[in-house]
């Protein structure tokens, strides 16, 4: 299979990708902001490989979608499908540092033992009330409503806590009919409300001072460094596509702010 995508903004072409609805909703929300493609090398727009036994090989496909707008430095989504075994949506929306905005992050992962759901508006400066309080005031009621309807996701590593908000939606959902129902009835509307909250913030955001922009940039870089160093998908991607390609992808595409 070859992809006909010429830039990162063109629709992905993975058939039966489990998480397509969520990327489609994101694309719709961006349409009014005059998006343009985020520059992504063709080597990372589309990648295909085989895994499993020689007698019964399985295909894995990874495509990367991306854009930029006046207030968004980079929005990008890593979309992966490995047969019926693994399906991944890793979506991060990174604002320009001259606006006082959080990151939007959604990690939806299907594994043989269930679905992992992570959804948040993540702070660049967690201890800065100006940066966080108005966001959390809007987001906490949304989180309280939907998290109460989901099974818990488990403990968060202590070193990671500073990169999440108090409204971090985190769940482990079973496979099968029960999980499909939770995704349809809980995750879809929850995602929509988090996304609406984020885009309301983007719409209302005003440019900040150069001094504060510099502070925001440092916080964003620290966040990106942490995400690149601790990316839980690293071992899986290495197994599918090799170490060299994976490290370039993680450090130069997924978390490229240095």
Structure description:
This protein is globular. 40% of the residues lie in helices and 25% in strands. It starts with 19 loop residues before the first helix and ends with a helix. The mean pLDDT is 95. A hairpin with a 3-residue loop joins strand 4 and strand 5. The protein is built from 7 helices and 8 strands, in the order H-E-H-E-E-E-E-E-E-H-E-H-H-H-H. The longest helix has 28 residues, at 177-204. With 258 residues, the protein is α+β, with helices and mostly antiparallel strands. It has a single domain (20-209), classed as oxygen-dependent coproporphyrinogen oxidase. Strands 1, 2, 3, 4, 5, 6, 7 and 8 form an 8-stranded antiparallel sheet that branches.
- Secondary structure tally: strands: 8
Number of domains: 1
- Detail the poorly predicted runs: none
What is the N-to-C order of secondary-structure elements (H for helix, E for strand)?
Answer: HEHEEEEEEHEHHHH
CATH architecture tag: 3-Layer(aba) Sandwich
Instruction: Tell me the name of the CATH class.
Output: Alpha Beta
Oligomer: single chain
Bulk shape: globular
**Mean pLDDT over the full residue set:** 95
Mind telling me the C-alpha Rg? Answer: 18 Å
Question: What is the count of helical runs?
Answer: 7
Describe the sheet with the most strands. 8 strands, antiparallel
**Global structural class:** alpha+beta
The helicity comes to 25-40%
Strand content: 25-35%
Describe the secondary structure blueprint for this structure.
Elements: H1 20-30, E1 36-37, H2 42-45, E2 46-52, E3 57-68, E4 72-82, E5 86-95, E6 103-111, E7 114-122, H3 129-147, E8 169-173, H4 177-204, H5 210-230, H6 234-241, H7 243-254
Antiparallel strand pairs: 1-3, 2-3, 3-4, 4-5, 5-6, 6-7, 7-8
Helix pairs in contact: 1-4, 3-4, 6-7
């Amino acid at each position: 299979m070859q992809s006909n995508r010429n830039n990162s903004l063109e629709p992905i072409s993975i058939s039966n990708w489990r998480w397509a609805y969520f990327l489609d909703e994101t694309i719709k929300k961006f349409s009014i902001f005059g998006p343009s493609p985020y520059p992504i090398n063709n080597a990372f727009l589309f990648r295909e490989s085989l895994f499993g036994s020689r007698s019964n090989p399985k295909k894995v496909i990874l495509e990367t979608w991306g854009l930029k707008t006046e207030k968004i430095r980079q929005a990008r989504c890593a979309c992966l499908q490995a047969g019926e075994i693994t399906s991944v949506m890793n979506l991060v929306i990174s604002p320009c540092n001259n606006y006082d905005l959080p990151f939007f992050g959604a990690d939806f992962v299907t594994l043989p033992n269930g679905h992992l759901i992570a959804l948040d508006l993540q702070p660049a400066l967690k201890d800065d009330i100006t940066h966080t309080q108005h966001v959390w005031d809007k987001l906490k009621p949304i989180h309280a409503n939907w998290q109460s309807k989901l099974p818990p996701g488990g403990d968060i590593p202590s070193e990671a806590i500073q990169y999440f908000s108090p409204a971090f939606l985190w769940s482990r959902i079973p496979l099968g009919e029960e999980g499909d129902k939770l995704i349809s009835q809980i995750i879809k509307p929850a995602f929509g409300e988090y996304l609406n909250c984020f885009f309301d913030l983007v719409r209302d955001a005003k440019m900040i001072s150069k001094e504060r922009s510099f502070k925001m940039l440092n916080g964003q870089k620290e966040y990106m460094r942490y995400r690149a160093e601790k990316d839980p998908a690293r071992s899986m991607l290495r197994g599918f596509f090799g170490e060299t390609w994976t490290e370039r992808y993680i450090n130069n595409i997924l978390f490229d702010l240095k």
